[in-house]
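User: I'm writing a short report section on ligand binding and want a predicted complex to refer to. Could you take this sequence and pyridoxal-5'-phosphate and write out the structure as C-alpha cells? A short remark afterwards would be nice.
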Amino acid sequence: MTNTARPVRSPDKFLVFGSPLIGEEEKREVLDCLETGWLGTGPKVARFEQDFRAYKQAAFAVAMNSCTAALHLSILAADIGPGDEVITTPLTFCASVNAIMHAGAQPVLADVDPTTFNIDPVRVEAQITKRTKAILPVHFAGRPCDMDGLGMLAKKHGLQLIEDCAHAIETTYKGKHVGTFGEFGCFSFYVTKNVATGEGGMVLTPREDTANRLKILALHGMSKDAWKRFTDEGYKHYQVVECGFKYNMMDIQAALGIHQLRRVEANWRRRQEIWQIYQRAFQDLPLTLPAPPEEGTRHAYHLYTVLVDSERTGVSRDAFMGALTAENVGVGVHYRSIPVQPYYAERFGWKPRDYPNSVSIGEQTVSLPLSAKLTDEDVHDVIQAVRKTLGA
Ligand SMILES: Cc1ncc(COP(=O)(O)O)c(C=O)c1O
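Assistant: Sure. The C-alpha cells for the complex follow:
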C-alpha cells in the first residue's frame, strides 16, 4: 500500500458513496407539492404506484415510507406472527431480519452461495421446519436469486415468498421481474438506491385484497380511501378497521420517484457501463471481482463489490477502505454477516461458524461507487485510487 502525500482526488471533491442523480424534473415536481400545499399522501403517490406497477409488470403496488415498512407489513399481511419462522439470508441489511422480528416471528438464516452471494436453496431446505411459513430472499447487489430453486421449495412446502428487492428494481429472472414471484415484492427508494426518494418503499402484489389490506395497515388501519377525506369532493368519514401503522409515502417523496423512475433505464445503462469498466480495469489485480451476470437474468447493477483477501493483497479490508477514503473516494460494506452483529448473536445464539460463506464475504467485501451520477473522471479516479492502494 502506497501513501504518497497527494491524494487521487482533492478533499473538496470527495466522492460520496451512493450519491443520487437528481434532475430538474424532480426539483420542479417537488416544488409543485410545495406550491399546491399537497405534501402528504395524495395524487402523486397514486401516480408513482401506477408507474411502478406498470414498469414492473405487476398487478398492484402499494407505496410506503421505506422498504423496512414494506417488509414488515408484507409479513403481517401474510398472516405470519409469533410461533412462525421465516428463512432469510445472513448477507443482508439488518432491516430484512428486523422486519421478521417486528412481526413477532422468528428469523432463521440460511447461508449464501459463495459465488453469487445469494441465499442457497439447498441450505434453505435444510432449515425448513413445521413452523416455517415463508422464505425471504434478498436479490443481493441486484443479482436475482435462484428463483426456480426457491419457487420449487415454496411450492413443495407450502411457503410464502416475500422478496426483498431493495437492490433489484431493474432485475429480471428468466424474463420475469423480481418482486413478482410470490405474493409480496418489497422495494426501497432510500437515497442510495437505483430509484431514490430520500426514504421510500413499495410492495408489489398480484392480489387486490392483499393490496387493500396493505394500504389499510400502512395508514393507521383506516379504511382504504382515507386520504381522499380532504379533497374538494366533500368530507368523507373514515373507519378504523384494525390497529395499523404510520407507514404511508408522502407526495414529496413520490414527486422524486415519478421522475427517477422515468430515468431508471438510462441510469441502469450508465451503471452497467461503469461496472464493465471496473471489471476490465481490475482484472489484473489480486481482488475477487463480482461474478458476471448469469445467462437468462438481468442484473440491476446496484452494488459493485470486490473482495479483499489480505493474504493475496497484503492489505486488510479495513486498511483498503481507509486508504480509499484517504484518496477521497467513499466506499461501503454490504454487509458484515448478520450473526456477527452482537444483538442477534446474543438473542438467538447464532454462531458465525454456522454461516461461513456470508461471514467470509462480510470480512472481505468492499463496495465501490456505482452511481449514474459518476462522471468519466470520477470513474477514472476510483480506478486510480484502487490501483494506487494496491501498489499496482
Ligand atoms: C437488502 C435491504 N433490505 C432492506 C433495506 C431497508 O430499506 P429501507 O431503508 O428503505 O427501509 C435495505 C436498505 O438499505 C436493504 O439494502
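A remark for your report: Residues 93 and 371 are 19 Å apart (CA to CA). The mean pLDDT is 96.
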